[in-house]
Amino acid sequence: MGAIIPEALAAADRLDAAGIPADVVCVTSPGLLFKALLARQGRADAPAWVLDQVFPASRATPLVTVLDGHPHTLAFLATINTVQCVNLGVTRFGQSGSIPDVYRYHGIDTDTIVRAGTDLASR
Questions:
Q1: DSSP per-residue codes, 10-35
Q2: N or C end: fewer C-beta atoms under 10 angstroms in the chain?
Q3: pLDDT digits (tens, 9 = 90+) for 58-95
Q4: What is the pLDDT averaged over residues 86-110?
Q5: pTM, two decimal places
Q6: Cβ distance 5 to 26 under 8 Å?
Q7: How far is CA 89 from CA 34, 46, 62, 68, 116, in A?
Q8: Chain Cα centroid distance, residue 74
Q9: What is the rounded distance in angstroms from the CA atom of residue 44 to the CA atom of residue 92?
Q10: Is the pLDDT of residue 28 over 90?
């Protein structure tokens, strides 16, 4: 999951420079955030404060989640502050090629992330 941090950061910078209000999220431990969400809902014993630190309600904005795994893995993040979300990730397996080509094929490259953020802003 951490492998695509450069693409996520580059896309976030481009969206910010364009004045597009969207957060790009790529996390290496979705399980901890999911447990925190369950704790906030009273369904688990875990520290829920982490959600307020990572996703403060005062800056709730549309999300683009990016993962070199299945995109549904991070879909729950939109429920934290009830925001619009586009989830990008890998849904087909077995392809090979250069890293830029494979990322582009799966739609987890910088340009696709920027387009997803731009699409969210136009909704």
A1: HHHHHHHHTT---EEE--S-HHHHHH
A2: C
A3: 999 999 999 999 999 999 999 999 999 999 999 998 88
A4: 94
A5: 0.91
A6: yes
A7: 18, 27, 17, 5, 12
A8: 6
A9: 32
A10: no
